[in-house]
Amino acid sequence: MNAVEIEAPVVGVTVYPDRARVTRRGSTRLAAGEHRVRIAPLPLGLRRDSLRVGGGGAATVLGVEVTTWRQARSTDGQVRELERRGRELADELAGVDDTYEIEAQRGQFLARLAERAGGTYARALASGDAGPADVATFADSVAGQLADSHGRRRGLARQRTDLTEELAAVERELGAANGKREPDRLAAEVTVSVDVDDAELDLELTYLVDGARWQPSYDLRLVDDTMTVTWFGLVSQDTGEDWPECVLQLSTARPAAAAGVPELSPWYLDRIRPAPRPAMPAASFGAVPAPPAPGAAPAGAGDAVARSAPPRPRMRESVAVVEQGVTAATYRPARPVAVPADGSAYRATIAVLDLPARLDHVTVPVRAAEAHLRATVRNTSAHTLLPGPAAVFHGADFVAATRLPTWAPGEETELALGVDDRVRVERKLSRRADTRAALGSTRRRDVEYRISVANHTPRPATVEVRDQLPVSRDEAVVVREPSLAPPPAERTELGELTWRLRLGPGESDEITMGFRVELAKGVELAGWRE
Questions:
Q1: Is the same domain home to 51 and 193?
Q2: The pLDDT of residue 288
Q3: Model confidence over 396-406: pLDDT tens digits?
Q4: Domain-embedded: residue 164
């Protein structure tokens, strides 16, 4: 059986969240009869059961085998060059160390020579066999040679430092190409039966490989009442083979997910068996939703600068072509993308979406007397945005880093845009009185808070104010509500209250929240706060 090896470069890659499907194509001319066509090298992470062969030509595929290609060194050109350079640097470093050791021994020899010659010249001077000029000449010669030796050693030390740093850089590059350093590779051997002489065959090889992934990333930019969502795909791989510029597709499919329908298990009911109640902290009556994380203050409405020249049109971004499947979508970037096997993330733009945003403010003055600007954005596109990190911008200002959840078409999501200092909030205790009932021994505590909100922005603002009433956990502690003005728009069983104030530019409003706490005889109040 004739054997032939052909070139079959990578022409297409479909990247899934945890793996990739690689497509290679190659062609050859063969005589009639059976032949074994070898395609190599292939990565070691190739899933052998996923290998498929197709193509065109007057031939029949009889079988496919995957064999291991044993080699002394890596076949990757970049890795081989780095390894060669590393060996050269190691040899140079060893040569510098040898030369340094020789110079060190030379210096020791000159030092011992000077010590021994000192006594000899002293006796020669005493006997008149040598003069002071002879001693000075010898001393100058030894001193000069020692100085030259020390200078050469300093130069060798600097050279050694430079070589060590360069070798470390090469080793870091080799470390980044971890998957390509393994010398062994796989090879696909395709057995074909050719029907006619001089037949041209086109072979297409596809396989799944581990070590590849893509994840979404977003830029969210709010301008006026429009949120521009730029959706990126971050592709990285360390499969052991570089992907050249080819047809790259990003798929949301999850091949590893089980395809079976979940089965039901029995639903049992049982009697409650009480467990010891854990001790509750004494400093809390209830919970208030934590305020959104503060960010940079949104930019103020500055005066527009008149320009004589018309504004330049906004630059466009190339986006991916989408193919919607039954359960997944595939995105193909507008231009080919090369992805080396170095583990670095390479970014491709998937889509740019302009979505409507509704702005309001949220404040929780019991926690912090500040108002947070919030955007409620509806996904009016046909894309289901996958969960991933997002950078939030208000105009040109970066205000927060967040993480988007899965965002389906038609759904709304809320984004915090930082503290807006133009909406002023103040909460203060306006009244507190501790009394005792005329009949009986019940003690009372009456308190009243006033919350003032002022809108100093140049446009109308809706401000959502959140506060709370204490919630009793004991029948001997009773909470009553003398006054809530205006009535809250929402209220929960845990005492959480929500007002929505609509304020025009320069307007302000006030909320009054008063309540009474009654304590039975002998009961000490825990969890109180002003």
A1: yes
A2: 41
A3: 889 889 999 99
A4: yes
Q: Say which residue, 71 or 3, is predicted with more confidence.
A: 3
Q: Cβ distance 457 to 420 under 8 Å? A: yes
Same domain for 69 and 160, yes or no, is: no
In this structure, are 95 and 70 located in the same domain? no
Domain that holds residue 47: 2-75+181-209
Pick from 292, 298, 293, 291: nearest CA to 393: 298
Which tokens go with 448?
Answer: 């009243």
Cα 256-257-263 angle, rounded to 5 deg: 140
| Pair type for strands 212-223 and 226-237 | antiparallel
**Is the bond leading into 274 cis (omega within 30 degrees of zero)?**
no
Q: Give the neighbor-by-neighbor strand order of the sheet with 185-194.
A: 2-6, 33-42, 185-194, 59-69
Domains in the chain: how many in total?
3
E strands, 160-315, are 185-194, 199-209, 212-223, 226-237, 243-251
256 is a domain residue: no
Cα 329 from chain centroid (whole Å): 23
* Two structure tokens written together for 87: 């060996």
Q: Are 207 and 46 in contact (CB under 8 A)?
A: yes
The answer to whether position 293 is within a domain reads: no
- Compute the average pLDDT of residues 99-116: 85
Q: Which two tokens stand for residue 496?
A: 């959480």
Q: Is residue 302 part of a domain?
A: no
Q: Which of 165-174, 258-267, 495-504, 511-520 has the lowest mean pLDDT?
A: 258-267
**Tens digit of each residue's pLDDT (9 = 90 or more) over 423-440:** 999 999 999 998 876 666
Same domain, 450 and 479: yes
Q: How far apart are CA 516 and CA 254, in angstroms?
A: 57
Q: Decide if 203 contacts 6 (C-beta within 8 A).
A: yes
Both structure tokens of 147: 């100085």
| Segment (H or E) for 429 | strand 423-436
Indicate whether 37 and 164 sit together in one domain.
no
More confident residue, 439 or 480: 480
Query: Smallest Cα–Cα separation from 229: which of 217, 240, 237?
Result: 217
Q: Which residues contact 425 (CB under 8 A, 6 or more apart)?
A: 363, 365, 369, 370, 371, 451, 452, 453, 465
Rounded CA separation 332/328 (Å): 14
Q: Over the range 282-296, which residues count as b (16 or more CB within 10 Å of their CB) and which as e?
A: eeebbebeebbeebe
Section 66-71 average pLDDT: 78
